[in-house]
């Protein structure tokens, strides 16, 4: 029984999985942070473009 416990403690098979889970969670969290930062700028840019495009007069050539 002691040998089984020692083997279990010395085993590093699950450590790689834990590393990948933590790394994946960090990437997802960073992605959400980027989306949150960009979202506000996009709304401002869209409003500005809408105002500029709405002010353009098109000549029908009549």
**What fraction, in percent, of the residue positions are helical?**
over 70%
- Assembly type of the chains comes to single chain
Radius of gyration: 28 Å
Main pleated-sheet profile: none
- Average of the residue pLDDT scores: 85
How far do the termini sit from each other? Answer: 96 Å
Overall tally of structural domains: 1
Strand content: under 5%
Structural class: mainly alpha
Quantity of strands, as a count: 0
Count every helix, treating DSSP H or I runs of 4 or more residues as helices.
2
Low-confidence stretches: none
Tell me the overall shape: rod-shaped
Reading the helices and strands in chain order gives: HH
Keywords: Membrane, Transmembrane, Transmembrane helix
Transmembrane segments: 20-40
Protein name: Pilus assembly protein
Organism: Actibacterium lipolyticum
Architecture overview:
The protein has 62 residues and is an all-alpha fold. The chain has one domain. The protein contains two helices and no strands. The longest helix is centred in the middle third of the chain and has 42 residues. It is rod-shaped and about 95 Å long. The mean pLDDT is 85.
Task: Give the arrangement of secondary structure elements.
Layout: H1 2-10, H2 13-54
Summarize this structure as a short list of keywords or feature phrases:
single chain; 62 residues; mainly alpha; 2 helices; 82% helix; rod-shaped
